[in-house]
């Protein structure tokens, strides 16, 4: 979103009544024609803005997009989310975030979109990303930790998302599916895709990509049996700006503490308590072999503990296995 458009949106949101066009012109050094172009752009994005001669403009309806003007008043963070780069449509927020990170973007920048045309999850699976309903974001991190620890970040993210979902959707009891999903009733609500650029002993940046099915009323037929949305699970619409702010508010303290530790820290207890896999028989496809056993939880370092039928216990890191749950 254009910065001037976002500034005008912020002024409209903070004003209880009408905001005069003259005041906007004076504040932003624009002509009336330029102000009108920004108002038109906001209307095209779904904002209902009333215009009355002699009074000015008033915001009546908001599509609750994950933009700074909507999210910033809700943030309690010092760094994360203080800059949001928003696209109405983009191929992939992760791809845009990587481009910005390579160009020097600071830690905490969030790339958000209302729609993705090339959204993807782990194993290059397609992530269906329609407009107007869901949350698609990518967060740039620059942790001062060895690359070997980055596999813990998806689990930190899951823990923060779990907190945020329960804050925003009272009564929801989501479960965590190792290593990077949140489910309700056995169906997927959220997925995470972490990507990094590093050298042998140095992490340059990490991109935390998150997709959350928020206000979808119907799940596409091809994924109806495996996916759900917060609206379907709770019966109530959820504010996307509030959900994003809640996640960032929960994630920042967990992340800051984690950078000074060696293990998952306080996130571990939540991940164990709300584990979806623990006690279930699972099949792990790894190195063209299929390992079958019982999920016994995770280690404090985020590895899956798998008890095989022969009595052996395997410890699997997040990058090694593909899980298929057998009920």
Automatic annotation (TrEMBL):
It comes from the Bacteria. Coiled coil: none annotated. Keywords: ATP-binding, Biotin, DNA-binding, Ligase, Nucleotide-binding, Repressor, Transcription, Transcription regulation. Its EC number is 6.3.4.15. GO terms for biological process: regulation of DNA-templated transcription. Residues 69-259 form the BPL/LPL catalytic domain. GO terms for cellular component: cytoplasm. Biotin binds at residues 92-94, 116, 120-122, 188. InterPro entries: aa-tRNA-synth_II/BPL/LPL, Bifunct_BirA, Biotin_CoA_COase_ligase, BPL_C, BPL_LPL_catalytic, HTH_11, WH-like_DNA-bd_sf, WH_DNA-bd_sf. GO terms for molecular function: ATP binding; biotin--[biotin carboxyl-carrier protein] ligase activity; DNA binding. Acts both as a biotin--[acetyl-CoA-carboxylase] ligase and a repressor. PANTHER family: BIOTIN PROTEIN LIGASE, BIOTIN--PROTEIN LIGASE. This is Bifunctional ligase/repressor BirA. It comes from Prosthecochloris aestuarii. The lineage of its organism: Bacteria, Pseudomonadati, Chlorobiota, Chlorobiia, Chlorobiales.
